[in-house]
Amino acid sequence: MATARSPAAAADKRRLILDAAVRVFARQGFNSCRVSDIADEAGVAYGLVYHYFRSKDEVLDTLFLERWNVLLGVIAELDGSERTPREKLLAITSFIVDSYRHDPELMKVIIVEVTRAANTFGATHIGVIQRAYQRIAAIVAAAQADGSFRSVVSAEFAAMAFYGAIEQVLTSWIFGLLEESDEGYERAKDFVVVTICDGLEAHSDVASA
Question: How far apart are the C-alpha atoms of 189 and 65, rounded to whole Å?
Fold first, then answer.
């Protein structure tokens, strides 16, 4: 059985604090909340938050990196699969949309609060952010190389447009601009892929650039 000092107990306490931070950041906003708000939400002593995290900025960093690294793993797995380029992009879209569907508070923090902290946050994590774009661009570039996608748009630009479209859909849900329902989620997945892929895919009546 885990004791108060065991690694398992420490991991559970750390997770408790992170989950509480998601709720506080989503409800109050990152800039307007204090570490004490996170401690109160988690039901722990104020000092215990500092035992695991140096600041609320580190809490936000941790939440972002956890989710982003999962996304990187999913993209890498899909890139190595036998799916078509369109199927790979649909699967990436589905993963991100379903992440929002099942944990909207966390995705709100990732999309909205990370963006608001972008001046310092982006400089710190630009490398890991770029890796996602690079992996998506690699999928596009491979499709351009085999003729599935036209090369009129650079793979790098296509990757940013693809992820930007998904992020804008999530933002629209967060601010109530798009319908949130099972049907709405599934429709959004298809719309993103149609928007990007129909512009990239080679067609018999269009000469490849």
Answer: 24
Judge contact between 165 and 192, C-beta under 8 A.
yes
Q: Which residues of 54-72 are buried (b: 16+ CB within 10 A; e: fewer)?
A: eebeebbbbbbeebbeebb
Digit-coded pLDDT (tens) for 125-170 = 778 888 999 999 999 999 999 999 999 999 999 999 999 999 999 9
Matching residue, tokens 């109050």: 28
Look up residue 207 and give its amino acid. Answer: A
Domain membership flag for residue 206: no
Looking at the fold, whether 196 and 114 belong to one and the same domain comes out as yes
Residues 156 and 120 in one domain: yes
Residues spanned by the domain of 15: 1-53
